[in-house]
Amino acid sequence: MSTTEPVKLTRKDFVSSSEPRWCVGCGCYSTLNSIFKTFIASGTPRENFALFSGIGCSSRLPYYSNTYGFHSIHGRAPTLAMGMKMVKPEQSVWIMTGDGDGLAIGGNHFIHLARRNPNIKMILFNNQIYGLTKGQVSPTSPRGTSTKSSPYGSLDRPFQPMTLALGAGATFVARVPDNDNEMLFAAMDAANKHDGVAIIEVLINCVIFNDAAYESLTGKESRADRTIRLEAGKPLLFGKNMDKGIRFRDAKAEVVKVGEGGVPLSEILVHDPSNLNSTYAFMLAEMGDSEMPMPIGIIRSIKDYVYTPYTCKPTPEGYKKAMLGGSAWETSADGTIKVLTKE
Amino acid sequence: MSEQQLSGLGARKPIKEISSAVIRFAGDSGDGMQLVGDQFTNTSALSGEYFATLPDYPSEIRAPLGTVFGISGFQICIGSDEVFTPGDLYDVLIAMNPAALKSNLRSVAKGGIILINEDSFNPRNFEKAGYKTNPLEDPALSAYNVIRVPMTTLTGKAIEEVGLGPKDADRCKNFFSLGIIYWLFNRNPAHTLQWINKKFAKKEQYLKANTLTFNAAMKYAAENEMFKQSFKLKKSSTKIKAGNYRNITGNQAAGLGLIAAAQKSGLKLFLGSYPITPATDILHEIVKHPDFATVLQAEDEIAGIGSALGAAFGGALAVTTTSGPGLSLKSEFMNLAVMVELPLIIVDVQRGGPSTGLATKTEQADLLQALWGRHGESPIVVMAASTPSDCFNIMLEASKVAIKYMTPVIVLTEAYLGNGSEVWRVPGLEELPNIPVKFRTDPNNYLPYERNPETLARDWVIPGTPGLEHRIGGIEKEDKTGVLSLAPENHEIMVGLRAGKVAKVAQEIPPTEVYGAKDADLLVLGWGSTAGVIKHAVRKLNQEGLKVACAHIRYINPMPPDLEGLLRKYKKVLLPENNTGQLRFKLRGDYLIDTIPLNKVQGQPFRIDEIEDKVRAILGGQS
Question: What is the ipTM of this complex?
Fold first, then answer.
């Protein structure tokens, strides 16, 4: 059916006949581009991709990819992906979801996908708003967000998707802003190569209903001070002059000045996404409030048991045994009875 | 105790030949009544007898001891000839405490044996069961053959030598009741002794204790004067077809039927399921056979069907199993399956509803939900199994229909069928019908929603097939191309096509069989688990000379094409249902035919006499 040799494909091979209908300036476009780049780089034949999505702006994505695709119902894409992966393990299975789809209505499937650790990739488009229903508060909207469904400010505390994924046992988590094409591709490519579940949160700017929600993280002026670009083996440094760093003291992360007049570089945490102790990953995932910069890139990538269903091996003898069960007998034409199996 | 020793003991007392008997074990839900019932059933099976069983247990795992609502029952009807139901009136009731007596007495046949565990008949237990005085002193009990045995005390004596105390005597006493029944019905104890050996291989003390108890009970019954005679089933008058046989519950049969269907279709079997009473035993059965099925115990009911639909997209024979509450949760996904037109089997083992309802009890009240319980115009094939072993056959049929017509199929069974068991001749794979499957691999002129004119099915294309990449989903599709379309006329066309496809399944339905009097004026129509009880009643009424016939349907959407004509042949049609008239409503809607309802929603199946009485009343002009 399909080849295992790497194939050389181009963007043209992956663009479907359906033209994307996202709003102009939506972060979904750059995410789709990086997905195509990752698919091309993998050398995997087009037919070996299967994309699953739920409902929402991001969930339209499978229509735009000329692969196998399934645009399902709200929140449930992980369930379909799981079934597909279990019966066709060789298929490269991807889930496209959003903060409403994946964390509200589909929250249960999200955590169980992370818990089971199948070799399935999920792109979580987090724009902190319900877009397709025209602007309601989502599980990732900051408390106090004013929307059509929360005109006086939302009362809910938000989820931090990465800590939720980590708490559920995800073995690969990454967080990337939608305007960082290089990092988007690097994270998706690493996710694709990761053996196990990979969840990438893309910080999507919704130009219509939640414009500039991530402005401080993505804006030219502020981003150097507000984000830390994670690189394995490199210290957690940030700032225009890379003179600020993260130190771990008194059981918490703190921002310190590094070098002259500050602390020596040796006191700064060095990024290790393969750290099996989840405390470090949680620390990175939780950072990003007004006090602390937000780490972006691959937060965690560890090796662990990967969900593997039994391989069916039907045989005629096995079939007969299954049918007879624990207690069976044979009746001959003359009425004599012979015991075949006993519990 | 060896078999010879036992028969030697029994030989001192007369043995009466009987053609059938109904035995009911009843005790606290922790008393092990299901266990001894199973032992009795398997031993009967290995004697080549016919039987049908009905486990009847509360939803509490261990309800407060001695209370009526905590009573767990196991009923079996054994017969020399074919048995249609687990029976109505008990020839023997084993009552382990006053509550068991209270909740079962009304169903004991006059003159029947009531075997009492005398030790538990004390004022405290009378009070818990709601008796003001000792029920054993009630003169009404003189209508029965009451045998009082201090089972707990005797068990305690029997196990003294292994150094176990009174608490253990309480745990072993179920084997005392079983031992007595084995003597009473001249059962070979070998099977059960072997079972005890295997079960308690690692707990030698309990192995000894249960063996001693079981043997002591058989000896006690043989020697004690209260037991005047024992019983033996007559040799069968019908010749049993040669082959392999086993005891099978409806839930086991459903699981094995799906495994067989996967083998006949050459597909992988995928089950996505979430535990729910009374359907979980299908999951238990299928998961036993990892060589034949890929199983996901999902995080919820929705994930159960979702994973199954994903597996169907991947080319598997995909199934989800559930009961009422789960069926409700799955309805949105069933609609997606209708829309994407993939084969999918949804098994609903019906229980008493609504909501949590009567979780362990039987009912047929999900029919209308199965037919119409989804938003939009959402036609789904609905089939219903009629006996425990029919749960096997129906899975093969449902699989064939689902694949051939690329449609979801709901298979309705019932708690009564799922938990009930009967003798089943195990068919060889070669005896079963083939289920052809064709995955499309030709990329030329492929349109995802182009249809086979005979079945209106679209092609099944699975991911991994080069050149046929396509997208499916819940948004309305353009006819043939499958491109998203909200065009008004197209929607109407697609609604019609989806309905037309399900209607075409009628061509798969065999002619409806009629049983009973040829010149009958009254037809008793049934669906689901009422098959056995209706047939039994009609057979008996025909023997009395009453002109009544019966027919049973297994397809409810679409209906058998010959059904309307058949119903119109009779002056009257009686329709017994374990709901308030759901099929009756559909028949009236489809055919403008009024049937006479006979409804029972007590969590219990119909008794034969309930059907008989209604038929007599109708034919006598009273109804």
Answer: 0.97
